[in-house]
């Protein structure tokens, strides 16, 4: 990405002020992006309109995925944004390979479909959305299981990854990356990849900081991209359990927000960018879009604030991924290798 000299409207942030992450290739990625998953209750049309509004407000980084079902409409928004004079090189656009497309014959075709839908010649980043090829009907109950579901099989993942590498060779994507990984899985990928992941997308917010994995990624030159950075207050009911906590209701976050006169959501985003991850919050509300982007260019949190937020980690994973389990009566924790090794079949 190079600098963008367009005039910003009144309720907008100058994109040139937004912090950037430098990836191991030297490419620059805006350190905050817009999520585009409508959590099943925001229509595809509204998400596409949100992309247009976000570009006006100053967002240049967009996190898309084929499974969100809205790439064709978002593509029309990108077409308008580019027609209005913004250059492609000033945008950072991510998409993701869904779980039913891990087959060697499917990876390139799936990326090409996302490119067609998004009306783009290339993606800045293409991620393997989940490390399991286990798919399920969209919006289904968390107890639904795919009868063909399997655990993580590294050889199979690397077959998929070889095709991801081919996407880079062919110039269809500039970077490839992973999502929903763990340290043990990532170690194997780093051992065997020809083109290493540039980024890993993962749940990250003040109540789920994943400190060990986060540091592992930084140590290995992989950019952590944080999803559900506000604690996904609008997530579907199927992704809620009674044990879940909410970072925007945490007394430490509330106190900082009150002192600064900002919404607790904005405190979560300021913390995220300062800590070194790239949050990708969703909002369908232009006022919130603006507040979120302004929050990461305004005065930073103090060192005391950062320390206080570090101390409120509750290891509370909200997006547990139950539908990707491969056996009945399994704990969702089996997906996440919590004992430090890949969970056995
Ligand atoms: N890789 C993966 O597996 C994966 C998984 C989950 C999500 N993601 C990505 O991450 C993105 C974000 O995650 P998410 O949507 O789950 O959660 P999130 O960004 O943590 O939360 C979004 C919610 O926060 C509210 N919000 C945003 N800014 C606000 C503000 N300033 N004040 C008050 N409320 C505010 C929004 O409501 P309003 O609309 O009313 O502002 C919306 O309901 C997704 O859209 C998707 O792109 C990726």
Mind sketching the topology for me?
Layout: E1 20-22, E2 28-30, E3 34-35, H1 44-57, E4 61-63, H2 71-83, E5 92-97, H3 107-118, E6 125-128, H4 154-169, E7 176-179, H5 183-192, E8 199-203, H6 211-219, E9 223-227, H7 251-260, H8 264-275, E10 278-279, H9 286-295, H10 303-310
Parallel strand pairs: 3-4, 4-5, 5-6, 6-7, 7-8, 8-9, 9-10
Antiparallel strand pairs: 1-2
Strand content: 5-15%
Query: What is the assembly state of the chains in this entry?
Result: single chain
Instruction: Give the biggest sheet.
Output: 8 strands, parallel
**Mean pLDDT over the residues:** 95
Instruction: Supply the number of structural domains.
Output: 1
Unique bound compounds: NADP nicotinamide-adenine-dinucleotide phosphate
Name of the CATH class? Alpha Beta
Strand order of the largest sheet: 3-4-5-6-7-8-9-10
Q: Give the helix/strand class.
A: alpha/beta
Q: CA-to-CA gap between the ends?
A: 43 Å
CATH fold descriptor: TIM Barrel
Description:
This protein has 345 residues and is α/β, with parallel strands linked by helices. The chain has a single domain (20-238, 273-298, 319-336), classed as Alpha-Beta Barrel (TIM Barrel), CATH 3.20.20. It is 33% helix and 11% strand. The chain has an 8-stranded parallel beta sheet. Strands 1-2 form a two-stranded antiparallel ribbon. α1 runs parallel beside α2 (71-83), α1 (44-57) packs across α9 (286-295) and α7 packs across α8 (264-275). It starts with 19 loop residues before the first strand and ends in a 35-residue tail after the last helix. NADP nicotinamide-adenine-dinucleotide phosphate binds at residues 35-37, 39, 63, 129, 179-180, 201, 227-235, 263, 265-266, 280-285, 288, 291-292, 319. NADP nicotinamide-adenine-dinucleotide phosphate binds next to α8 and α9.
């Amino acid at each position: 990405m190079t600098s963008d000299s367009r005039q910003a409207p009144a309720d907008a942030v100058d994109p040139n002020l937004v912090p950037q992450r430098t990836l191991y290739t030297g490419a620059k990625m805006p350190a905050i992006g817009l999520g585009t998953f409508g959590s099943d209750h925001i229509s595809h049309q509204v998400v596409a309109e949100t992309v247009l509004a976000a570009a006006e407000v100053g967002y240049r980084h967009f996190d898309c995925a084929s499974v969100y079902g809205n790439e064709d409409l978002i593509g029309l928004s990108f077409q308008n944004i580019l027609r209005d004079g913004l250059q492609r090189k000033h945008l950072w656009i991510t998409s993701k390979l869904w779980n039913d497309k891990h087959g060697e014959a499917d990876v390139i075709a799936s990326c090409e479909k996302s490119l067609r839908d998004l009306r783009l010649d290339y993606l800045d980043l293409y991620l393997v959305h989940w490390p399991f090829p286990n798919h399920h009907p969209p919006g289904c109950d968390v107890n639904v299981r795919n009868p063909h579901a399997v655990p993580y099989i590294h050889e199979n993942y690397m077959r998929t990854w070889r095709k991801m590498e081919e996407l880079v060779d062919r110039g269809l994507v500039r970077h490839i990356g992973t999502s929903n990984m763990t340290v043990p899985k990532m170690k194997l990928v780093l051992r065997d990849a020809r083109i290493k992941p540039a980024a890993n997308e993962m749940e990250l917010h003040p109540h789920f900081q994943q400190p060990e994995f986060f540091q592992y990624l930084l140590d290995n030159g992989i950019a952590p991209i944080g999803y559900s950075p506000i604690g996904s207050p609008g997530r579907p009911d199927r992704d809620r359990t009674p044990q879940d906590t909410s970072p925007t209701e945490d007394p430490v976050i509330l106190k900082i927000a009150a002192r600064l006169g900002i919404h607790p959501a904005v405190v979560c985003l300021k913390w995220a960018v300062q800590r070194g991850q790239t949050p990708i919050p969703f909002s369908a509300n232009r006022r919130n879009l603006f507040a979120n982007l302004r929050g990461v260019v305004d005065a930073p949190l103090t060192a005391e604030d950062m320390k206080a937020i570090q101390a409120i980690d509750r290891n509370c994973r909200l997006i547990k991924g139950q539908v990707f389990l491969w056996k009945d009566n399994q704990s969702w924790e089996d997906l996440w290798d919590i004992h430090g090794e890949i969970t056995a079949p």
